[in-house]
Each structure stands twice: as structure tokens, then as C-alpha cells.
Amino acid sequence: MSVPAATIRHVPALASGPARIRPAEAAARAVMLVLVAALTYAFTGSTAQLGWIALLAVAAAPSFLARGHAVLAPLGRIGEVVVTCMAAGSVAAAADAADRVTNGFGAEAVLPYLAVPLLTAALRRRQAEGVALLGVAAVTMTVSGFTFATLDQGYYAVCVQWLVQGAIITFAAETMRQLLQPPDPTPQPYAEATRLLTQLRSVARSLPGATLDPGGISEHLLEELRVVAPGHRAAVLSASGGGRLVVLAQTGAERVDWETTLDADSGIADAWATQQPQTASRSQARSHPGGDVSSLVVPLVAGVRTIGLVILETDDSGAYPSSVVQAVTEVTGPASLRLEAALLFDDVRSLATNEERQRLAREIHDGVAQELVMVGYGIDNAQATLPEGAEETAEELRTLRAEVTRVITELRLSLFELRSEVDRNGGLAAAIAEYARTLGTSAGLRVHFTFDESTARLPAATEAELLRIAQEAITNARKHAGASNLWVTCTVDPPYAEIEVSDDGKGFADTRPDGRYGLTIMAERAERIRGRLKITPRHPSGTTVAVVLGTPPRRDSVRDSVSAPEGE
């Protein structure tokens, strides 16, 4: 009977309540209130008129305390306009009475504040509200003039002046926004990409070991974690697309078939979704013999993205208390950034490689291939117009035509190789089978397949390199071995994989430079993914080329193997 998983969840509480006050916005209003208060006292010499400033501060409160509210914020700005314009008439009358500023020009002490609500509405792109505020201001100024008997010409001149300035603020704010907006930081994407890639190359060369290999970084992380949290099994998983995870590295006496789907009921899916460590009293593998188990799943988070997971398991109960979880997260935190850099570098390299392969395929198809076809047509025309008795010339033309046909066939197969990729849904074995079947048919080879492929996937970059190695081995067998049969074996049990290509040809006696160059390329590709290339004779005849990644599992495979001959 399975035991329900006990999990540790630290999900942060959602923020609630009113929008947070912006210090800059509050400070701007406070400065403007202080300014109009000082001007009011200077113009009137009366502390009683400062009551308008206090009322204005109360009216301004909703505008920044509830600035995101659909009703309170606009009402607050209307209140600011009404109080400002009413205060203008009162201050103008008080200034006239005190003989400090006459003819109604005392309104100049308060009306500068009118710019605050109008500018706020304009910056929020509420032009209709700005127009409404201007209308409210005009009506209130007129009412205030009659209320406080401030009908002097200067009062209305000041009011019109600030209404015009308010209109400028309302209708020119969008233009000001565009002028003040910083320029597009990436006006030339290719120039920016060149700069970033140059920086990445410099950083990569300065890293320990000058490498950005996700597999190597993952293995180093597991070695670090072995010190703080010993266990029987551990793995580092990363996203691969299609809602599945790939195993970058793992340790343990036995190979584990980890749960790699994110829609399953598991600590792996919970850790990925919550970005918080998860502990459980059950295994995170698809199949487990049972018994006491403790598992810990720690997400690898870079910024706001989950880029991978670390799984630790041991055959003891209660092995991961909070102190161990904290020690593990202290190690995985810095490692997340390193792994993200490696994965991004892999993506950039894969994109650049695929784009270059597609470009070469287009160039060959539209260039050399078309020209060779025209050469073939020319030879055919020459054969058709030969005079009678020119048998020797006709034979040479037939030989030349056959050679041109052979070269065109080789080019077409090269185009097929350049455009071959591992499909996200098909898998590595399917891509290798398609290539071997196509080349076997063109060369009259009987191709025999043996596949043992896990439902888990290798990283995309690793699958691509394994496909290229298999293609090179199959091409060499077709071109140089003179074989009748080809055996292709593909075993994938992430992070372990083995691709083997055998033929019954003349053996590895070929010393052609292009053959040696192909072997060098295969060895370089294997080294890039930290694999091993093995070339051995096949008895009684032929050659076997194999690439091995990781160490083989120490248990019988739980998956069915497929073994079928092709071409019989």
C-alpha cells in the first residue's frame, strides 16, 4: 500500500489591500502643497486661508492612496480641482483686502496646484477625464469669483492663463511621453546579438574548464550535494519541451526510471509548479520495489523561471528534515544560474547550427545541384547529336553521364542528411531509422534495426549530436564498406545511450583522407557530449562503430525492445 506523500510547501501569501503608495508621487504632491501654502500666506498674511490648503490635502488623499481605483481616484482628482478653484477666489479676495496683491491676482498663489490633477490624468492616458477636469475648473472658477465677489479683471486673467496651461498639459502629455520615453534598446537586433554572443564567448573562456556543458555542471552539482545530503539515488532533470523533462545526470547503484511528466501526481510536478522544495515518503520513480523511502525534490530557479529539478532519494524514512532541505537549497541556488547559462548556450549553439545546416542545404540545392543537373542535360544532348561511328566518344559520354548521376545522387543524400533532425515527438531512434532506411534503399543494403528506447528523452543537443554520429557511420558504410547488410542498434535510457552501426563489408582497411576526416568528426562530436567513440572489427567481416554516452543500467530494461529487419 502506498503511503501518501508528505510535502513541505512554502507558497508565499498573495498580496492584498490597496495599491502601494508611490513615494515619488506622494512627495510631488507634498512639495506642491507646501509651495501653494507658502504663496497663500505670503499673498494674504492670514493663517485662516491656510485652511484651504488643509482641505486640498484631504481632497488629494484618494488620488495616491487609491490611485488604481476606478471610482475613488477620479473623484479625488475632481475634488482637488474643485477645492483649488474655490480657494483661488477666496485667496484673491483676502489678498485684495490685505492690499498685498490687488485686482484679483492673488489667485496666482493657489492655481499652480491645478497642474497636479490634470498632469496625473494625462500621464494615465485619461484624456477624456482631463477634458472633464478642465470643464469643472472653468465652472468652479466662475462660481468662486461670484461667491467671493472677486470680479476683478486680474482674477479672470489668471484663471484663463491656468486653464490654457491645463489644456496644454492635457493634450500635449502623450507627445511629452513619447519624447521622454527612452529609445528602443535593440534598434538593430543583429548588432545586439553580436555584442551579446561576443560577451558570452569571453565569459565561457574564463569559466573553470572553459565549458558550458549542462551535463558536466549537473554532475558537479550532484557531487556537491552528496556531501550535504548523502543518499542512494540522485538526478538532475531539465525541461525539454512538450511538457516533459530530460535527465541531465544521475547517480546511484541502479538506473532509475524517473517520472518525467509534469502532469503526474508527484513531488516532481509539485516542485516545478510551486518553485518550492518538496519532500515525500515515496519514490519519484515510475517503478519502485517498495520499502522505506525518503525523497526530496528541489527546483532549480533562475530569476522567475524554473529551469530544472534536483531529486534526492534514500532508502530510509525521514531522511530530509528542514535543516537538510535548507543545506541543499544553499547549494542549488548558485548552481541554478550556472545551469541556466549552460542551457542557454546550448540553445544558442543548436539554433545557430540548425540554421547553418539549413542554409547550406539551400545553397547546395539552388547552386551546385542545379548546375550538375544542367551538365547532365548537356551530356545527354551531346550523346544525341553524335555522328555515326563515334563509339569511343559515346562510351566516354556514357561514363561521364553515369558519374554525374552518381554525384547528383550523393548531393541529394547530403541534402537529406543536412535537413534531418530529431523530431520532438518522434525521438532519436525514429530519426536514425529514417536516415538508415533512405540510404539503405539507395545503396541496395538490407538494414536491420534493434531499438530499446526509454520514454524519457535526452537533451535536444545531445540527441542532435548522436544523430550526426550515426549518420556519418551509416554514410561511411554505404560509401566505402561494400557491404550487403547494415545493423543499426539504438539504446536510450537517459542519461545513458548507445548507438551502434555494423556492416558486413570489407572491414576498416580504407585509408582515404575523407574517411579519416569523417572519423575525426565523429570523435569530436562524441567528445562534445562527453561520450566515447569505439571502432572495432566485426567478425567474420565488416566494421562496428559505436558511440556510448554515460554508463549502462545495472538492471534489466522494463521496456520492450524492437528488432526488425529492413529491406528483406
Automatic annotation (TrEMBL):
It comes from Actinoplanes xinjiangensis. This is Histidine kinase. The chain crosses the membrane at residues 26-43, 104-123, 130-149. SUPFAM superfamilies: ATPase domain of HSP90 chaperone/DNA topoisomerase II/histidine kinase, GAF domain-like. GO terms for molecular function: phosphorelay sensor kinase activity; protein dimerization activity. It holds the Pfam family GAF_3. InterPro entries: GAF (IPR003018), GAF-like_dom_sf (IPR029016), HATPase_C_sf (IPR036890), HATPase_dom (IPR003594), Sensor_HK_TwoCompSys (IPR050482), Sig_transdc_His_kin_sub3_dim/P (IPR011712). One of its GO terms (cellular component) is membrane. The keyword Kinase applies. Keywords: Kinase, Membrane, Transferase, Transmembrane, Transmembrane helix, Two-component regulatory system.
